[in-house]
Write a structure and sequence with these properties.
Blueprint lengths: L8 E3 L11 E5 L3 H12 L3 E5 L17 E2 L1 H4 L5 H17 L8 E4 L5 H10 L4 E4 H7 L9 E5 L3 E2 L2 H14 L3 E3 L12 E4 L13 E11 L9 E3 L6 E6 L3 E5 L12 H14 L7 E12 L6 E5 L2 E5 L5 H18 L1 E3 L3 E3 L1
Parallel strand pairs: 2-3, 2-10, 3-9, 5-12, 10-17, 16-19
Antiparallel strand pairs: 1-18, 4-8, 5-7, 6-7, 11-14, 11-15, 12-13, 13-14, 16-17
């Protein structure tokens, strides 16, 4: 088994000859599986994607995701490997979908949470401190609302329910078939299988757990934001993410529970946070309330497990859209050249 060492990259024997046209099956059409299929197809594999759900993907974790591409913000509470892989993913998003918004992200706090704000500033990197006047230049709707903010100018965001169809269109353009309503047995395949089933993969990764993330989607034409805004909270940072057509996502809690319901307390806290950012959210129309289960290992770090012809990619936790491109690139590098990133990959 490869463990963390002084070097991030090592070389191992690739699972099969990396011949163009060799078969690869990807299980799961969420954000992880979609990027894995894309990277393998570009590496010359003949890829088929198997998805047990339907094309709407309403039961997938990706359906309830925020889609923030914020590696430096995440550095406040995550291991350095998350920032490293996340920063690489930003480049891959730009390459694949050049219209991805990279307007940065803002972190703000009310005076009573000043200590949390300073702690966030100390533990995260890649930001500039803005005055109240500078905040108003970036987001006029926030004028006079906060005395200062942290601006992470290189970060971005995507709208998961719009970007996944775009990525699927890229797969189809590459000749990749996506078979919905199709369960794929892992078995002893004589070709490459990449398992991206998320929480459903506990048959091969029993230490996986589901971490619930609750969110609320609202609609209002009284608010205009160009970038995600995180409001620091005594228990967790809450964020507001702008989407198209006057839509905003408010999220997300992080609860050690596999119940998919949304509690009254969580709904009140999410809505109160939005109101605290700007009172106009009090008149917004609630469009949807929902929760998704993020697959996580005990250390909350992603893992690529390699066992013969089967590669399991899982444990993306709350970093799915941030990490999926970089993890797919690592899998393709292993399949093509036997490269192993020993902070993420394990040969079993």
């Amino acid at each position: 088994m490869l463990q963390n060492g002084s070097s991030t990259r090592e070389t191992a024997a690739a699972p099969t000859k990396a011949a163009r046209g060799a078969i690869a099956h990807v299980i799961g059409a969420g954000i992880a599986g979609t990027w894995q299929a894309l990277a393998l197809a570009k590496a010359g594999r003949r890829v088929t994607v198997f998805e047990r759900g339907d094309v709407s993907m309403t039961q997938a974790t990706s359906h309830f995701a925020g889609g923030m591409l914020a590696p430096w913000c995440e550095g406040e509470s995550s291991e350095p490997v998350i920032t490293r892989l996340g920063a690489r993913s930003l480049d891959l998003w730009r390459e694949e979908l050049p219209d991805t918004p990279f307007n940065g992200s803002l972190v703000v706090a009310h005076p009573r949470d000043r200590a949390d704000f300073e702690r966030f500033a100390r533990l995260s990197g890649g930001h500039k401190r803005l005055s109240g006047r500078e905040i108003a230049k970036l987001e006029p709707i926030l004028e006079g609302r906060f005395q200062d903010a942290l601006f992470f100018k290189d970060e971005g965001h995507v709208e998961p329910r719009r970007v996944l169809p775009k990525l699927r269109a890229r797969l189809e353009a590459l000749g990749i078939e996506i078979r919905f309503h199709n369960e794929h047995e892992i078995g002893d395949a004589n070709h490459l299988v990449v398992d991206c089933r998320g929480i459903a993969a506990r048959d091969v990764a029993p230490d996986l757990r589901g971490v619930k993330g609750e969110m609320i989607i609202v609609e209002t034409d009284e608010i205009a934001l160009s970038r995600p805004v995180r409001l620091l909270h005594p228990r967790w940072p809450l964020y507001i993410i702008p989407r198209e057509d006057n839509i905003f996502m408010i999220g997300a809690t992080s609860i050690e529970s596999e119940d998919r319901g949304v509690s009254v307390r969580s709904a009140l806290e999410l809505l109160s946070a939005a109101y605290a950012v700007h009172p106009a959210f009090g008149e917004a129309r609630i469009v949807e309330i929902g929760a998704g289960l993020r697959p996580a290992f005990p250390d909350n770090l992603p893992r690529i497990d390699i066992k013969g012809q089967t590669i399991t990619v899982n444990g993306l936790y709350r970093h799915g859209f941030l990490l999926a491109p970089a993890l797919a690139e690592l899998t393709a590098a292993y399949v093509q050249r036997g490269e192993v990133d020993n902070q993420v990959m394990r040969c079993l």
